[in-house]
Amino acid sequence: METTQTAPRKTLYSAIQPSGSITLGNYIGALRNFVLLAEDYDCLFCMADLHALTVRQEPAALRRNTQSLAALYIACGIDPEKSIVYCQSHVPEHAELAWILNCFTYMGELSRMTQFKDKSAKHADNINAGLFAYPSLMAADILLYQTNLVPVGADQKQHLELARDIANRLNGLYPGLFTVPEPYISKTSARIMSLSDPTRKMSKSDAEDSYIAVLDTPDVIRRKFRRAVTDSETEIRYDPENKPGVSNLLSIIAALDGITPEEEAVKMQGLQYGALKEAASESVIAVLAPIQERYQQLMGDKEYIQNTLKAGAERAHYLALKTLRKVYKKLGLYQL
Predict the structure, then answer these.
(1) Is the pLDDT of residue 13 over 60?
(2) How far apart are CA 81 and CA 86, in angstroms?
(3) Are 14 and 33 in contact (CB under 8 A)?
(4) Taking the CA of residue 198 as centre, how many other CA atoms within 13 Å lie in the half-sphere pointing to its CB?
């Protein structure tokens, strides 16, 4: 009698810095998809607090933001029993592998990173070594778990390519050391743009009125959408090149309704921009309300958050240690 063997599930890894508000763009482009991805992949969702240190942090705020991000992961539907939800600094193998990878990463590679140039310009008084070596730590995050897939946006593609280069370089010296990760690019995720400059991606590092935070109150959401940039015309149609502001609002509503922006535009035919902004507000408020309610419950149970992160760190540590021991042995480091 023949038995069929099930192929091992692939590993998917994602990390978000706990350095401020999680935006509507983060939710639509990433967090809500994580729930579905966990059905098909072994997922690790990390709060990248070590990465956050490249910019000066207020300690109490960083601790609070880390708890908040953990609660948001779960409130958005991620099940910490199915997936590993953990804090980067709770698994020391991240920093240990990062040092090894630094020794195989070239200065020229790091100096070409666009994000290093951008952040150096924004924080000219704090161009630290951690900011320069940030991609090596990111590569360690990924390679530590023999990751197959990494969900990436346009701003992280360059870092993932470097992680792949480092993995291939070490595999050339020590065959079979690392799984070479591939980018996971969702075919259905909408690209959500800034409300104040719809030619740019929505970002929490921009002015507050330019983004919707997942934890914004209904009144704040309505106010931000009322101020959203549109254009001097009156027709509602999906045309990202010529009508980026209107198209962004259509994309937001469509992503939450589960239809295309073109279909949403047909539904809005004959209406004014005020009605479009109101429709965007109400769609977002309706989707975020249960997430915010669950978030408040979780933040009121600090013991649950702490126990969840402790359990996640233990599971992540087990996987990370297997890779690190393999790396140390291949490189000839004497082990007890």
Answers:
(1) yes
(2) 12
(3) no
(4) 21
- pLDDT score for 336: 82
Q: Which two tokens stand for residue 319?
A: 């996987």
Q: Are residues 153 and 212 in the same domain?
A: no
Cβ atoms of 213 and 21 within 8 Å: the answer is yes
Residue 209 per-residue DSSP state: G
Torsion angle defined by CA atoms of residues 22, 28, 29 and 35, in that order, rounded to the nearest 10 degrees: 90
d(CA 114, CA 85): 29
Active site annotation includes 204: yes
Instruction: Give CA 322 to chain center in angstroms.
Output: 25
Q: Is residue 155 part of a domain?
A: yes
Which candidate in 10, 157, 204, 267 is catalytic?
Answer: 204
| Residues 6+ positions from 153 with CB-CB distance below 8 Å | 29, 201
**Which domain does 96 fall in, by range?**
11-184+302-331
Same domain, 100 and 218: no
Domain count, the chain: 2
201 is catalytic: yes
- Range name among 33-37, 44-48, 165-169 with the lowest pLDDT average: 33-37
For residue 117, indicate whether it is catalytic: no
